[in-house]
Write a structure and sequence with these properties.
This protein has ten helices and twelve strands. By secondary structure, it is α/β, with parallel strands linked by helices.
Length: about 300
């Protein structure tokens, strides 16, 4: 027994005419007759009295209309519920960040994106770079923020913006009085908060290395991550050299341009061929946010 047989049975029972039943089902009359005959063979009873002039239900046919209707109703209900469940299934988007500051950018983008994709269910991972690369390769996240010169192996890259190099310092730091600075200015400045090579791309680490060259240890603050660096700079213990992203600037700090250095390409890494429509929409939104921040 299948739903096609039951639909044919209910249509013939309703019209008491094979031609009209076939027309309503968009089937041929022989196809409907075949389905009814197969159903009767399976049930072991005659469901219709058929003559050349009329069709009418047998006693067993009347009885079966109740059961056939309930079976079809349950079948249609189950299909509808499954479609609803499929439509309501959340769209997962795994996003990898190496620092909490990038979460500010993600938060702004997700707030807008949620209006476009109500079923979106973001998965945020805030962990070290190497671990993020593994998660990306395993497919546990769909994208991660990175600089172009540090794109993971096997990953594609999309530039979201170009970030200028800047000196970050507290508002009361002597450097804060400048509108722009040079490498020589920073060499002669006070204490610098530094980071390990794997935290930032080679270009930034190279600039940092030129500044700390020849300095005494007490003129350097070594930081394991950006959160520590931001904390020490905010407290006035020194300055730092960073890629300036206006959308994720820390409150209470000043960002002074270093125009002698080229901006860095900042963007997202994702597996080649894995850029599904939701990810592409989200990357476009991120790009728009960074562009607005650069123009502000």
């Amino acid at each position: 027994m299948n739903t096609t047989q039951l639909e044919c049975f209910m249509a013939v029972a309703n019209f008491l005419n094979f031609s009209r039943a076939a027309e309503s089902l968009r089937l041929t009359q022989p196809a409907v007759s075949h389905q009814i005959s197969a159903l009767e063979d399976e049930m072991g009873v005659r469901l219709f009295h058929r003559t050349s002039k009329s069709v009418r239900l047998t006693q067993e046919g009347y009885l079966f209309t109740q059961y056939a209707g309930e079976i079809l109703k349950l079948s249609n209900l189950s299909k509808a519920r499954l479609r609803e469940a499929q439509q309501a299934q959340p769209l997962h988007l795994g996003i990898g960040c190496r620092s909490a500051s990038k979460l500010q950018l993600v938060q702004k983008a997700l707030k807008r994106f949620r209006q476009q994709e109500p079923n979106l269910l973001p998965i945020l991972r805030l962990i070290p770079f190497d671990s993020l690369e593994n998660l990306l390769e395993d497919g546990e996240i769909q994208m991660m923020f990175c600089y172009q010169e540090a794109v993971p192996r096997k990953a594609a890259y999309r530039e979201l913006g170009r970030l200028p190099i800047a000196c970050m310092c507290a508002q009361d730091d002597p450097l804060a009085a400048h509108e722009q600075l040079t490498l020589q200015d920073l060499r002669n400045a006070g204490r610098i908060a530094t980071f390990r090579p794997s935290v930032f791309p080679p270009a930034l680490f190279h600039i940092q290395s030129q500044i700390i060259s020849g300095r005494m240890p007490d003129q350097m603050l070594f930081c394991d991550n950006l959160e520590v660096l931001h904390t020490l700079v905010s407290a006035g213990f020194g300055f730092a050299v960073v890629a300036d992203c206006p959308q994720v600037r820390q409150p209470g700090l000043k960002y002074i341009p270093l125009p002698e250095f080229e901006p860095l390409s900042f963007g997202a890494a994702y597996l080649s061929g894995a850029a599904h429509p939701v990810l592409r929409q989200f990357l476009s939104l991120l790009e728009s946010l960074l562009r607005q921040g650069a123009e502000a």
